[in-house]
Design a protein that fits this description.
single chain; elongated; 175 residues; Ferritin; mainly alpha
């Protein structure tokens, strides 16, 4: 059990705390709300990709283990940086970024990563599938956010580009 100072409760009385807000918005109204909703979906997927990447990193076994193990670290770092950029954009637009584990688990578009040790070949396919799912979500958001907020669109394009490069590198290892 976690020490008392680290325990959290899902029944925290959030009403005790007044949520701060930003007074000025660079995007207003419906455009702002729709943009934030799209960004939030991407954020949940990116956080989950980083978490699942770490699960894969710890549990990959077999020939070429080391290269896959190290490549997963690179993908995880990229996913974490991307999630940070997207979260900061959400806050820039005036809403809190939602990255708590319970929210990510409820909203991610990624399938759960399988339990146990996975062969390198299975890991390659599993990671490629997850990269593709995140990229598809980013591309949907890129299309939808274009008329709403071009700055957010540009940010998503940059994140998708990095992930697409890793998708190429990972799937190039499939038989």
């Amino acid at each position: 059990m976690r020490p008392a100072q680290f325990r959290t409760s899902s029944t925290v009385e959030e009403s005790k705390f007044e949520m701060a807000s930003l007074k000025r918005h660079v995007v207003d109204g419906k455009k702002r709300t729709e943009t934030i909703t799209l960004l939030q979906g991407c954020l949940a997927d990116l956080i989950d990709l980083a978490l699942q990447g770490k699960q894969a990193h710890w549990n990959v076994v077999g020939p070429n283990f080391r290269s896959m193990h190290l490549q997963l670290d690179e993908i995880i770092a990229l996913a974490r940086d991307a999630s940070d950029a997207v979260a900061e954009r959400i806050v820039t637009l005036g809403d809190p970024a939602e990255g708590r584990a319970s929210y990510v688990a409820e909203t991610t578009r990624l399938d759960a990563y399988p339990k146990g040790l996975q062969s390198v070949s299975d890991t390659v396919s599993l990671v490629a599938d997850r990269l593709m799912k995140v990229i598809a979500g980013l591309r949907e958001a890129i299309d939808a956010v274009g008329d709403l907020d071009p700055v957010s669109q540009d940010l998503l394009i940059a994140q998708a580009g990095g992930l697409e490069k890793y998708l190429w590198m990972v799937q190039a290892q499939e038989g």
